[in-house]
Write a structure and sequence with these properties.
Layout: H1 2-10, H2 12-27, H3 37-55, H4 58-69, H5 73-107, H6 114-131, H7 140-148, H8 153-175, H9 194-211, H10 217-231, H11 241-257, H12 261-266
């Protein structure tokens, strides 16, 4: 019972959505058609690919390259923020933050100016969240909005592109206020599996083609899932199944709410 209680307490968003879905089904009806399978399958496939790319050490590798090119703390923060901003577009905001932030904090632990170091941490997090908003597959929210509402691609990019450009400009201007002090850091080399990165990059292209309906999304998901299953099956343990279930619960809730004309008119 303690383990069960801990499971539901650790992810309140999942727990609340499950409870609301149960109430919705109890008072209304359950229909599998309410669940947008494209969003669930695409998100699941992207999670597998992103876990695979993360395991190749690609972000750690680029982090080391940027340290070598940085002569000042301000320069290092600018480069890491740019990496966070652009990598999150493809690898999602969570992966960019959870990978780059520990690397950055390890590299800068010997720097005396902690205020600037911590400010750099804030910029890395902001950059990842803003950068991931550009593409439909950058974060789950975008994927849902793009797929569920069938937003035309140019219209989608017009909105997100404006946000991305403005936020990047503001980030770069803000970084200019960080002191320009010299930098001397020890670089610890981490392995980078180029071959795996290329394969996962190709799988990402397949999944993106599914998002844009260039190929059927189920075919894209089956290709990705089958290759990962026979090549690196341990990646299935890294999929955030609770997030996938949370999306399914919300589809069920919305499907039931949409049956009530009075509620829709009131909202």
């Amino acid at each position: 019972m303690k383990r069960l209680f801990s499971f539901f307490r650790n992810d309140l968003f999942f727990s609340i959505s499950l409870l609301l879905a149960i109430i919705a089904v109890t008072l209304g009806r359950f229909s599998i058609q309410d669940i947008n399978i494209k969003v669930i399958a695409t998100l699941g496939g992207l999670m597998l690919i992103i876990s695979g790319l993360d395991s190749t050490g690609i972000l750690s590798y680029f982090g080391q390259v940027l340290v070598k090119k940085s002569l000042t703390l301000r320069q290092l923060i600018r480069y890491i923020v740019l990496l966070s901003f652009f990598s999150s577009m493809f690898l999602t905001n969570d992966v960019a933050i959870l990978t780059l932030l520990p690397i950055y904090l390890r590299m800068t632990k010997v720097i005396a100016n902690r205020q600037s170091v911590l400010l750099g941490s804030v910029y890395i997090i902001i950059a990842a969240n803003l950068g991931s908003s550009f593409f439909p597959f950058g974060n789950p929210q975008n994927l849902f909005l793009y797929s569920y509402y069938d937003i035309p691609l140019l219209e989608f990019f017009y909105s997100t592109g404006l946000l991305a450009v403005l936020s990047l400009v503001l980030l770069m201007v803000s970084i200019q206020f960080i002191p320009k002090e010299s930098l001397s850091l020890t670089i610890t080399s981490n392995p980078f599996d180029h071959q795996k990165a290329v394969i996962y990059g190709l799988l990402m292209v397949v999944m993106i083609a599914g998002v844009f309906s260039i190929i059927p999304y189920l075919i894209a998901f089956i290709i990705v899932a089958a290759i990962v299953l026979f090549w690196q099956p341990q990646l299935f343990r890294k999929v955030d199944y609770r997030l996938l279930c949370t999306f399914a619960f919300f589809f069920i809730i919305v499907g039931n709410l949409s049956q009530s004309e009075e509620l829709i008119n009131w909202l």
